[in-house]
Model the fold of this input.
Amino acid sequence: MSDHELRVSKIRDGTVLDHIRAGQALNVLAILGIDGTGGETVSVGMNVPSDRMGRKDIVKVEGRELNQDEVDVLSLIAPEATINIVREYDVVEKQYLDRPERVVGVLSCPNHDCITNADEPVDTEFEVLDDGVRCAYCETILREDLAAHIGVA
Ligand code: CTP
Ligand code: ZN
Done:
């Protein structure tokens, strides 16, 4: 794409999630808790041509930077994404994700009988599998909709 046809505008301050696997943009928005009602300005590109990936998705969130929990869960569903922190129009930081081996204290276990859902001072802990995550305490496997399980119950 030539310089004079920018598909999604540059942002002044915020976060650009680039090189998201095509088709994952809506899951990324779910992880960030963005459904349009929060008032943030968000631009989404889907199936945008990319030299490196053929097609990619891209999400730009203005006025917001991500916290580590969000980055951890993002790395599960979009490990190839690049996180660009933009300030005053410049990319001031570029973060490459790494698929973690385990995520602690980020996802809640869907099993009501799990010790992490009892009134005990236990952090949730999930081992990362190829196609999901497994609770380290009760072995419940979570494959879909990780976004709905963010946050400790
Ligand atoms: N970007 C933006 N607004 C800015 C600056 C950058 O939306 N003010 C976007 C760019 O459009 C690009 C991403 O942030 O999608 C990363 O910008 P940059 O590092 O300048 O681009 P590249 O060098 O192409 O990045 P990479 O090497 O990660 O592909
Ligand atoms: Zn459990």
Observations:
- The radius of gyration is 17 Å.
